[in-house]
């Protein structure tokens, strides 16, 4: 492993963690000596990397720091760019534009060889029949971002309609449908709602009684998604 690749690997290892990590753990992950980790930390700090900590206490990146993308392999470029193409086909106009802009930014920083390979990629993002932005996605995303309750008019598989006030948590994108996970006040439990069966979605001024990330953790635990 080159020194540049090792330093990048060390920054990536720190970026993946929210808490301080011991130098010994970093050394084991990167396959280098403890002395090398200490030396590389000093080098990175000297170059301006906002690393906090000390030998024996562990190291972490200061909150708010984002490592700019420095390099991508051809496989990584294929994966990222294909993912952005797929996203742009299944979301609302605002998010599709964000995907297109992210695509352009990533393509602009690729090394020439990888950029050429990405431009000639054999991976094509086709749009399935009937695919497109699901109804009410933009409104639901905005409500989740602001942590507001939502009033839904929902039609189930039998055609029966109901009105619910829900606490939106997450939206899952599956092959057959997009599904909203939410706490339903009517049922007093977590429920799932297909976006194509939502007749109306209105964001309410009421804030969620709990932070959305707390609700998300509770939903994941109840759904056994953390196993």
Automatic annotation (TrEMBL):
Signal peptide: none
UniProt-listed SUPFAM superfamilies: Winged helix' DNA-binding domain (SSF46785)
Pfam family, one: WYL
Xref: InterPro entries: CBASS_pafABC_assoc_protein, HTH_11, WH-like_DNA-bd_sf, WH_DNA-bd_sf, WYL_dom
Start and end residues of each Helix-turn-helix type domain: 6-60
Domain WYL: 135-202
Name of this chain's protein: Transcriptional regulator
